[in-house]
Amino acid sequence: MTSDTANLTETQSIGPDASLLLVDDDGPFLRRLARAMEARGFAVDIAETVAEGLAKARHHPPKYAVVDMRLQDGNGLDVIEAIRERRDDTRIIVLTGYGNIATAVTAVKLGAIDYLAKPADADEVFAALTRKPGERAEVPENPMSADRVRWEHIQRVYEMCERNVSETARRLNMHRRTLQRILAKRAPR
């Protein structure tokens, strides 16, 4: 298949409205992903903060969105809610380095169609954005490690406690500072 044929196929899978909003506070990653998505046929707009993402989502709600969960000025879920208020057909992907099941469930309830852990490459993002309804993502080859299972449990309890560190530490019978250190780290593989 030639490069022109591949581009035509990618453009056809995107549809006539190719507007894509990327919201991430990692500037170099954001610009790299924007270039890669533009090369695949999207009309890309970027935001590096929740405030900027909210403004862009309200002004011109996109057909596609990739939103980082944790941003310096807040939570990317607020951007998802703003997009959903204006447009219900947007295909939204949540992208985060702090992946856990509890936040994935919350993101899906708010309208995200997929949840990818960083570092996700442009091919993974494109595949998630253009996946047809009912089409399933590939099952991971390796099961979660014991560290990852522990991390998921801590995150689930943390979300149940409405992100209250003291209450979460009490329920897990863990010292508050130990829990804060665990929560500050990226998710184990």
From TrEMBL:
GO terms for molecular function: phosphorelay response regulator activity; transcription cis-regulatory region binding. Residues 19-133 form the Response regulatory domain. The keyword Membrane does not apply. Keywords: DNA-binding, Phosphoprotein, Transcription, Transcription regulation, Two-component regulatory system. It comes from the Bacteria. The modification 4-aspartylphosphate is found at D68. The keyword Membrane does not apply. GO terms for cellular component: cytosol; protein-DNA complex. One of its GO terms (biological process) is regulation of DNA-templated transcription. Member of the two-component regulatory system ActS/ActR acting in acid tolerance. These data implicate that a two-component sensor may be involved in pH sensing and/or response. This is Acid tolerance regulatory protein ActR. It comes from Hoeflea phototrophica (strain DSM 17068 / NCIMB 14078 / DFL-43).
